[in-house]
Amino acid sequence: MSGSFFGFNTAVRGLFTAQKHLDVINHNVNNVNTPGYSRQVAAQVAAKPSPLPGILGMMGTGSDITSINRIRDEYLDYKYWSENKAYGEWTAKMELLAEMEVTFNEPSDSGFTKIMNEFYSALQELVKDPSSAPPRALVQQNGVTLVRYFNSTAVHFEKLQADLNQQIRIKVEEINSLAEQVQKLNKQIYTVELDGSMANDLRDRRTLLVDKLSKIADINVNEVVAGKLPNGNPEKHFTITIGGKALVSHFNVSRLQVTQRDESTRLNEEDIPDLYEISWKDGNKFVAKSGELRAYLDVRDGNDGQVGVDGERESPSFKGIPFYIRQMNEFVSTFAMAFNEGYTDENGNGIIDPGEDGIGHADGYGLDPDGGGPLEPQKGIRFFTMLGSDGKPMSSEDFISGETSIEGIVDKYKHITAKNFAVSEDVLNNHNNIAASDVPGEVGNMKVLGELLNMRHNTHMFSEGAPEDFMKSLIATLGIDSQQAIMHSDNQKAMIKQVDNCRQSDSGVSLDEEMADMVRFQHAYNASARMITTMTEVYDTLINRLGLR
């Protein structure tokens, strides 16, 4: 009698097989919008055939589902991770450099060029009537506007450096968090796959975590065979390395840490205090060669393409925040010295030479509206000085501190930075201290004022040329770096998109395909159900009606 139910069992197998296919399709459709999900398919094979007694050959017994497979191309994953780290680096640099460009605010009606034009235009107005108070007040206020431009730019750059410092700490914490999540998934995947099953959804979650990690740091990923499981299947260990050191080694995690940089190891004089250094918690050196972390380090610190401990260049040369602060410091100290003292670099090699005709603001006399007394103009007033320890502009006397030698005076100007650049207390308190004449009491004498106006076109002041040439060169350098970052980011974005499209084409869920498969297996299910109905009728005839008259 058992042989008589052979066809019924075969039909039931077909019913269960179609149902499992429909269950997998249902799972795919439900996860069509799940990030990182890989399409799954049921592997269907013919069931083990049954031998027929006395007859050559074997009778088929239907079909079985042997596994639920995850459709994934590992090569595309590795390609994506390889390109994603460069995309993360250049996208972060593009955004940060764009913010730095906004800080310089060029070209605009409130940028350096406009401010410098207004400052020298005010000096030109003073030439028309040196005895008039309005043009003197205009020079005073435009001088304040000029110094505040550099003050605010420097403060913004320091704030950006501090923000990047915190962002580096956050990214290190994110790397550690992602690594720990991958480690936990490794354990779950290992446990599930001990009996030969496939932890498809867990592997998808792990791949998505690696996608995120690959954008932050230059990781290398490997899944290596480390032996055999009790069931004979290969035992695979999943590892993630950064710079040759394992971040995740199957069940183990090596964590990163940030420590505040010691002042003795300060990379740049322009750096703010307490910047973070990244290292492994076991004390080994950490080197980020790509990814968002590399971008934050490059912009925060800048680099000159240092060679790392492994002999490889850590990163191409990159001009970060300290470079631009350093350049602005050079501008304000050189410009202030030239404007105040008339000292310029005649040879273009850093040797300060006042020359025979070197005249600056300190060589002139201001206006004495009362013709004598306590308001009698004094020689030696500096237009620009610096902020003192109390945060207030220093007077010329306090700034120079009685220094008379050229070398000593030059040394004073080395302490002026973009952040502490200021109009002197003497000029702020009394705009009559603005010098125009090189002889006291000669209101119409324009010797000093003429020299100050000529400094705008002094091509010997900087190696780049005149003052505005220096700043234009600096802003152009930033613009070129920004355009380069945009170009690299766009190129990497195109490559990432292409690779991801290939991944989605291979692993993504297509509702059209799933609907077609659903109809196909629904028909198969209905056919198997119809076969069961048919076999039921056969058995009914065989059992209940056979022999009835």
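the 2nd protein, sequnce then structure:
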Amino acid sequence: MKNSRRDIFKFAGGAVAGAFFTPAPWRLLTDTALWSESWPGVPRPARGEIRAKFTNCALCPAGCAVRARCVGEQPVSLAGVRGGLCPFGLAAHHLPYHPARLKQGPIEEATAAVRKRAPEGVAVLDLNPGRSVSWTYRRAMASLKGLYLGPESQPVAYDLSAAKTVLSIGAPLLDGWGTPANVIAARQNFRLIQAEAVESRTAVLADEWIPLAPGTERAFAQEILGALQGERTSAVARELTADGSSFVLGDAPEIPEINRLLGAYGKIIVAPSEAPVPEPWKKSAAAITRLADVPDHSIRVLLIDESNATSYIPWHFIEPKLTGDNPLVVTFAATRGGYARHAQYALPIAVYPELTDDIAPAVDSIHPTFRISVPLVAPVVTAPAGLANPADFVGALAGIPASNSLRERADEIHQAGLGTVLTYADAKETPVKDLNPDAFWKALTGGGAWTQKDARRILPLAAGKPAVTFSEPESAIDLPLIAIREPHNPGLVSPLMTKLYQESNLRLAPNRVALNPDEARAANLANGARATLHTRVGWCSVVVTVDPAVPPGAVQVGSSPGIQDVCGPASRAKVVRA
């Protein structure tokens, strides 16, 4: 029998029509759906009892109270208690699972190498000072005759609730400067004047934004100081002196004298607070040494604690302090993006919310406080290879036995019998004197917070300083741009936060720089182009964002360690095509 083309088409059409009336295609779709649900990497929702846990966020000194919604032992969402929680804190329960996280390292090998060299020229660089572990480092360095290094400590604290007018010269007051709950509560009572080159998020929310030419922030501060001393005239200075409750924020060296003339010391600006510390700790602690005061080529072993660092010291400031004959650098880090690039050993550490640590006072903390970041997830779940404990590592070098320093400090606070402890689960404040030591410790480890509100310390008036002569910003033909840095962000950020970096451009990604369209056009750089950022210190690779909000003559830079290594505030820079 010979089949024609007509027969073939009739057979094909019948087969297609018949397929719809058989279970084969529908079963295939069902099986495909079932198979896809069991593929590796497909998330499976946790199952179990739904309950709430409380802790304190350790990503920055704000130490915001956190209510975690948990399914079984797994936190699935975080929210602020009695105040706001920043976007970094809202997504912090993702951090233990971050793909860039450092999960293993040669802990035993690093321990042996440090023990071999530690007796000579050892130092600890603590990038989050003010914690109980900081006292462990100081005691260990005193025993080893080493150095305890830290960033410039915050010399004062600010009471925003006492201010009626605030002049911020480039400070991110409404974008991570202090404790969100305190700033939001005080915001409605003061007038904010933001003076800076870029219309930042704080400038957008300010009552008045004063656009400054890039690099003229210090000249603006000198103008205010001259007006207060009667040598010049300034409308802003007149506004600051009008209500008697004003102060100025910023990095210009003239600002302390401006605040003294405004009468802000003792009223708005007070001494920083600190929770009680056991007396034996104080007697056996090394002094805090500034890195700038360390002789060059004097550190043979440098231990760097990067856990929840609140600042970053560029490597070109650290490197000259190391000995030239094979120095040993060990960093305790969550990722390889920071000092691990320069260290012989990078040891993994616990990250929030799996670590147990107390939180240093924030810049707007005017009362002594003691808060503990309580783990929401066990480190063994997310880092099965094991983690290094910086306090135990350093303490063991000096023969200081491993002890519960947090409990020791809590017992010292309880023994004083002052202040109250707030428990977030029931929103109750209980006087410390009404609790026994175990009940007080239970309240703290349940996510509570101790505060002594009657211990505000008045800061003595600063001595008068001579006026600083007016100076123009440095000019450079080879480096025509002035760098404007984004506020410092936590080192480890939830991958979901890249929505802000890569899609909305509400924040500048850590490895990006932003240029005015005219500057980008002159350098032949398009949006998204790869380029190199050059300064007098060095260069690094960056990605360009073209943004008309950036003024001509400036380059806005992110906060990656590579950029911070070569680019400080108001650095001269240029951006060229890679």
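The mean pLDDT is 86. The longest helix spans residues 5-19.
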